[in-house]
UniProtKB/TrEMBL annotation:
The chain crosses the membrane at residues 133-153, 179-201, 207-230, 242-262, 424-444. The lineage of its organism: Bacteria, Pseudomonadati, Pseudomonadota, Gammaproteobacteria, Thiotrichales. The keyword Membrane applies. Keywords: Membrane, Transmembrane, Transmembrane helix. InterPro entries: DUF3526. This is ABC transporter permease.
Amino acid sequence: MQSWKMEFRLLWRSRMSRMFLLAYLILALLALYWGQQRVDREQTFHAQVVEQTQQVLASYQAEGAEALDPGYLGYYLFMPVWQTPEVWAGVIHGERHEHPVQLRIRLLGLQGQLHASEIHNISALAYGHLDLAFVWLFVMPLLIGALSVNLLAEEKMRGRWPIIAAQSSNAVVILWRRLLLRFGMLAIVNSVVLLAVLLITPVSFGISWLLVAMLVLLYQLFWMVLAGWIISLKRQMAFNTLLYLCIWLILSFVIPGVGYLLQAQQQQAAEHIGMMTEQRQYMHDRWDSDRQADLDNYLQRFPEWADTAPLGEGFDWKWYFAMQHMSDLMVEDRVEDYRQQRLKALQLQQAFLWSSPVLNLQTLLNRMAGNDTLAHQAFLDQVIAYHDELRDFYYPFLFHDASFSEADFARIPAFVYQAPKQSFLLMGLMQFALGFVLLLGLLLSRRKHWLESDL
């Protein structure tokens, strides 16, 4: 016990170690605060949009339901849809900035409304957002390297190692003790950060919190074991530092970058632009075609509305919305292809998880926070289903000339997002644990070399 106390005093007396740990703690807390602030601003904005929508509905109600044209309402009334953030969204921003998560949907062609917003979000990809997940994934390994990777090389360079080694019958125990102390100090700092998560965010103490704590601890242990393996090579400081940084770069950027490029090859980047162009061109052409013939074609496809009255000489909302619906149907095969491309790219990403614990943990955290591609695709699928609900609500007024009453205002469908199940979580956990076990086995394979050699 006395030796542990002495090693702790040496570690705590190191000004550099204290500064690094304090800087890491401050950065983690700031990232946590800023991340939750982004989510709070998003919630505030959505509340304002909902309030504005209610005000618009109230103005229509004040004019009287009898005087209201349902087609006019379907065209001008924008209904807010929102990929509601889960409790971990403030901690793990994930891919949320890459996708449109708040939209305003009306009864027009849906695909143009979905993907028109996606174009405007591309600029956000260049800089991303600082969140706590970034600190854990990329900053923590650098801190571990700075504190640990040159424990032996620095003592040898300063000429102190022979004296230190002479104080113990097994010098390897001294190195392990120092590594474990650094692991414990960093684990305490991360525990403080995780407790702050409970105070700052809506996350409550439970299984998900314990799971994240376990993942962070295992990830920290992975890099500590890697540092121990590099120490076992007994090389100079420059070599140790360069090797550690190279491994960090490969695991953090090279392998995920290659995976991203392969994912990009699975998708046609401008596919949604082509869909929007085709859809818009279809609508433009309909203004110059036989409207009754176009409506008859639509009614053949949807016979439940076939008993509607023929079109008159003037403009008719049912023709307009029927053609908007047909413009969606014109590109539905391309929409499904685009969806399948995204899902195949996601499956390809799962294959890459074996090769990088950084990518593995990042994917797991994004999945837990509901801020990944799978969650966004589920959001798009639910918006499509919601748009069908809007048609089911409006079409009886448009095609059967049903009268719009005061009670119908309350029947206008509202969108409620349902988060998808954690389908890839268990597989990701298994991959993460297996990668750690392999590295631990690599380190233990050098244990005999450590014990038989002169440090």
